[in-house]
Design brief:
The structure is a homodimer of 528-residue chains.
Chain A (H helix, E strand, L loop, with lengths): L11 E7 L18 H9 L1 E7 L5 H10 L3 H4 L15 H7 L5 E4 L7 H7 L6 H7 L4 E5 L12 H7 L7 H6 L1 E3 L5 E3 L18 H16 L5 E5 L30 H4 L3 H9 L1 H6 L2 H32 L5 E7 L18 H4 E7 L11 E3 L3 E2 L3 H8 L15 H4 L11 E6 L4 H6 L7 E6 L3 E6 L2 E7 L17 H16 L9 H6 L3 H4 L8
Parallel strand pairs in A: 1-7, 1-8, 2-10, 2-11, 3-4, 3-7
Antiparallel strand pairs in A: 2-9, 5-6, 8-9, 12-13, 13-14, 14-15
């Protein structure tokens, strides 16, 4: 007789996130050139989720879905400039209720709800204030990247202490290079992507944050911990330290996915992105793409190498045996595919991410090294962590599902057959290009095994047949033959919306104990 | 040439709410027996809205929609035991941002979010804490009714000072009576509804709260004010002071609307209400209904008489000339119609309310005494108040529409042609009767000129043809001939859901000024 699976054997959690890492830029996900043995080792020891979707292909809304376990429509942070409401309950809050802490090393991109704090009279410098402004994490070292590190990070002092002086060592050295004439140039300009950053590799952002994680894990000793190690790479500025700047060549960068404009049936929002956004225009030039992709690959390779360092240290400390490890990204990067740069919209390059989970429990032994093709979502990560630690799943708030049953070979009946993602382009030039009001810029994706349907507020929908057209080259959003498919997908979207969890103020136990409570409270209604 | 309408002539706002007042129990709404001349006088001086719908036929969710201008799906307070999240921005908050105050006399039924305050480290006894717990109102006298008045009200002391002694003067006198044998009996038992309350009429709840309003208005002098006068009647306990207890007779109580069970096609949720809820079972007995309706009518009559006192005082003070007056109710009462007591569900008796608005501006002169048949909703009251006072409409938060254009004869093109309301029966016996999970008990109404469609989570929809069947006696929710109508109504519901305002953390001006802001912030993306 097999023993009952032990569901709470993980003592620690290592939740690793990369920024803007495409699902297919890892060797375990099939990249033909980019070899990532350390991330691949996670896939060997755990389960690699082949169809993992983020709730938004934009940093902040996607991350807030990871940190709350709730869809964007529920947490309300629809884009990068929208604060996380102080009312949202995060991973840190859930852990704190159980006497545990969520520690951060790296990026969260939580936009502080300072207006909310002011309205509520909460001192931003108080303990609750700091936690709220940080999205519930205790910030070992917070560094959101793509700007000089602020006071929440030790990186600026670190750089100075290692001899990187000047007013702005980050711009000068970390994303700065010397050109062929020895003149200082900035990595903000993509034409310099082939140059090595002036920072030494061991002092780069990825190295520094890995050091913080290693220090933290060592210091914890045998005390349990939950660490969110959140790299800011391979996000731009695309400038890698030596030797990663020169590890890949133009010829390694593979095909660029471009639809035939005669058959593509490009949607107005897609066209607006292509025309109104500088990053898209630049990525429509193949030379630009071939120039930046090698650096992107180098930055991924660098992350993998540093994860190798971290995993070796975890092994030395015995922590691989009692730590749940989650590896993922907040969204992908078009890297020139579909005539787009950056992310947003709903192409696989943007909304699909790598997701690998290693469950140390013996109950998960049977699935190690397997690939799970069921649809999973970013909102599943928080309930997976709570489940692994044996904590209250907070079903009245959390909209994702624990992945542990999948990891333990006990997939529940009726696992989701549709994944959802959202877009709000109000802050983008596409809005003004299309002359739309800030309240009319939302779009929603519903993706099933075969179909990807995108509903646009006030504009026609998009539809891709992922079976016949896996590269999403033909938009069948107004194909009369597929009206029935669009009908069914729209209903799926409507059902999902109706069932979002808005009654967040009471939990299900409270409801059960207070059903028809008025009679117990001596309130007699309609009693003769 | 007509002068441009002056849109900000109201200096003060009197927002009057009754509790559980059916739309058709006023003479200006056509009641044949119940004469309410003072409320009718508002209809003569303003506009009577004939099709006003609340966002929920339950006290707390309905009121929170009035106080936030947001649908229940947006504010999340789906039933009477669910707190109003501290994150919700209320009428009081909107006024306070403009240096004004919202003063309360009476009931709000705001369920304090004490858990939220604790999580945020806010002292409930601080000024912000008290405001948050009170839903943003400054509480002149808060009294939610149907329980002995608490410390937020002066009513308990008032009763004692007027000689109503004992441990519980409210239960003993206000909703207590002496029966035919001179024995004290409780108004909680409907069989005593014909008895006069022991309290003298001038010391009753309705009289007391009217006195508070009159005192307040006098004390304000010429300073502008916003007063929410919120009566707890004609809500149960159904016990009226003399002479109102005996003003109407069984024969005045009109027909009882009962469907033919052979043709009704009763929905499972309706059946569950009828079977599992004591108040519904009791109201299925005609004798019960005939016994309680006269007292309900007496309590309405009493409110009308006291409003006459208040209006006379406003006139004496000159305040009728510069005060926007809103009169409405939080929901109706089935009073035995459809085999139901109380409220909830979506029959006109429950979701349709009286709504009269008097705009003192000369711009509204042309509509005085008219009846407006366009669909309006509870969420429209807050934007109407903000509009009348010339304040920021907060369009990123507020989901209702100002009624001022309708009052001023300038109806905007494309006024809504569908009203929405919501139900969450998780706390009701209907849930356990139907063996449903607390997360599966929501229902949503979409009501157009002709149709009332009700979508139930996990159960078949309901559909009523209000043109052919204005009494809602035949549920056509599974009539194959009307599949197309249900299809269209479901899509209306889906469109409404998708467009709810969830991005509440930034306003539209902020979005406009921060569109493509990254370039201004020296973040270069995809620049060669």
């Amino acid at each position: 007789m097999a023993a009952q699976p032990q569901r709470t054997s993980a003592r620690n959690v290592l939740f690793i996130m990369c920024d803007q890492l495409r699902w297919d830029y890892l060797s375990c996900y099939g990249h033909p050139v980019l070899h990532t043995p350390h991330i691949d080792s996670l896939a060997r020891r755990g389960v690699r989720f082949d169809r993992a979707y983020v709730q938004s292909a934009v940093c902040v809304p996607s991350r807030m879905s990871f940190y709350t376990g709730r869809y964007v429509a529920s947490h309300g942070t629809t884009w990068n400039y929208v604060p996380l409401s102080v009312a949202q309950v995060t991973l840190g809050d859930h852990l704190r209720r159980a006497g545990r802490r969520a520690t951060l090393a790296g990026k969260t991109h939580v936009i502080p709800d300072r207006h909310g704090l002011m309205r509520l009279g909460i001192d931003p410098d108080s303990d609750p204030g700091r936690l709220l402004l940080g999205g519930g994490f205790e910030q070992l070292d917070r560094y959101d990247g793509h700007a000089p590190p602020g006071p929440e990070s030790g990186y600026a002092d670190y750089l100075r202490s290692h001899g990187y002086t000047g007013d702005d060592p980050w711009n000068d050295h970390v994303v700065g290079a010397l050109d062929e004439q020895g003149e200082p140039v900035s990595g903000w300009y993509s034409r310099h992507a082939h140059l090595p950053a002036r920072v030494r590799e061991e002092h780069s952002e990825t190295a520094y944050m890995t050091d913080r994680a290693i220090d933290f894990v060592r210091q914890q000793g045998d005390a349990p911990w939950v660490l969110h190690l959140s790299y800011i790479k391979p996000h731009w500025p695309l400038m890698a330290p030596a030797p990663y700047h020169a590890m890949y060549r133009d010829s390694d960068t593979g095909p660029i996915v471009v639809a035939d404009p005669r058959t593509e049936n490009a949607h107005p929002v897609l066209e607006a992105y292509r025309r109104a956004h500088e990053d898209c225009v630049s990525h429509q030039d193949e030379r630009f793409v071939r120039h930046v992709r090698p650096t992107y690959m180098g930055l991924v390779k660098q992350v993998d190498d540093h994860l190798g360092r971290l995993f070796a240290e975890l092994q030395r400390l015995g922590r691989l045996d009692d730590t749940l490890i989650v590896f993922t990204s907040d969204h992908g990067d078009h890297l020139g595919d579909h005539g787009l740069g950056e992310k947003e919209l709903f192409y696989e390059q943007a909304v699909r991410v790598p997701l690998i989970v290693v469950d140390p429990s013996a109950a998960a032994d049977a699935t190690r090294g397997t690939v799970e093709r069921r649809l999973v979502e970013a909102v599943d990560v928080l309930p997976t962590i709570l489940d692994a630690l044996g904590l209250d799943p907070a079903r009245h708030l959390v909209e994702g599902e624990s992945l542990l049953p999948l990891l333990r070979g006990e997939p529940p009946a009726g696992w989701r057959d549709c994944a959802f993602s959202e877009l709000d382009y109000a802050f983008r030039g596409a809005r003004t290009h299309l002359d739309r009001h800030p309240g009319e810029c939302q779009a929603w994706m519903a993706r099933t095994e075969r179909w990807k349907y995108i509903h646009h507020d006030g504009l026609r929908p998009q539809l891709f047949d992922l079976q016949e057209d896996p590269q999403e080259l033909v938009d069948r959003g107004d194909d009369p033959q597929l009206a029935g498919v669009r009908r069914e997908m729209r209903d799926r979207l409507a059902d999902w919306q109706l069932r979002l969890k808005r009654r967040t103020g009471v939990d299900h136990d409270y409801i059960a104990s207070h059903t028809e409570y008025q009679r117990k409270a001596n309130v007699l209604i309609g009693v003769w």
